[in-house]
Amino acid sequence: GLSQYSSDPRTEWDLSAYSTRDQVLEAVRNLRYKGGNTFTGLALTHVLEQNLKPDAGARLKAEKLVILLTDGKSQDDANLAAQTLKNLGIEIFAIGVKNADEAELKQVASEPLELTVYNVLDFPLLSSLVGRLTRVLCTRIKEKSNKENADIPVNTGPQLSPSDLKISAVTSKSMHLTWSPPLRPPKKYRIVYYPSKGGIPKEVVLDGAVSSLRLSNLTSHTEYLVSVFPIYDTVVGDGLRGVTSTLPLSPPRSLRVSELSHNSMRLSWKAAQGATQYLVLCSAAPDGAED
């Protein structure tokens, strides 16, 4: 499977799209380069949530490998997203080209770094890595496959997936989430939330015995997308998704004007709940600039 990323990751094809080497090579030849920013953390989150799912072709008991190819330093927190993948037993290989940050590659990649981190000065030099990387990847897959696999059921329905996400107690800066746990309790839950009109995703990781969460420090009058993912030892179950908007901030009320003179006036109003300061703007009517 392959995804390209800038500020918005894009799946080019899923794990289940092609079944032969020739088909994959043809797809690579037809690939259109995606320019733009370098939000590596967002890309790794996209791979986990979209590309390593059963309905995208990921087999539950197959070893999971992610090969990151980047030519720049990430503009978001790549280490946090990478750690989430590694905690799930997903192995990350990091390949840097040109302006890639080697320290960041070493943070993102799995151990041992001498096998998982590569850096070259320009794109044509990538061809020099193919032989060694192929051998390392195949060896790692064989090593991991020979270890005893965790007893994970094949069914990903109610066995591994929570249900009935409810969003309540919504205020201008918080909301409360609850859900029904899957039949098999997960090790952890990963909750991801972000504004629907764009913004850096934030995440909270909870113990698998907990099935509720209060999200706080949100932006007022903003629509949020919320996802809840159950995390097991070797697989991520199907996630729950919801959307809701925070309330607008309380406005001041009952504005009154008094004590008028040739160059002054007194304003008074009923306080806005939760306000710590007020900004007062005035302008000469009807079309003067604000002072």
UniProtKB/TrEMBL annotation:
InterPro entries per the UniProt record, alphabetical: ECM_Assembly_Org (IPR050525), FN3_dom (IPR003961), FN3_sf (IPR036116), Ig-like_fold (IPR013783), VWF_A (IPR002035), vWFA_dom_sf (IPR036465)
UniProt keyword list: Extracellular matrix, Secreted
SMART domains: FN3, VWA
Fibronectin type-III domain boundaries: 161-250
Annotated PROSITE patterns: FN3, VWFA
The organism of origin for this protein: Burhinus bistriatus
Localization (cell): Secreted, Extracellular space, Extracellular matrix
Keyword Secreted part of the UniProt annotation: yes
Lineage of the species this protein comes from: Eukaryota, Metazoa, Chordata, Craniata, Vertebrata
Domain VWFA: 1-133
Alphabetized Pfam families for the sequence: fn3, VWA
Principal location: secreted
Protein name: COKA1 protein
UniProt keyword Secreted present: yes
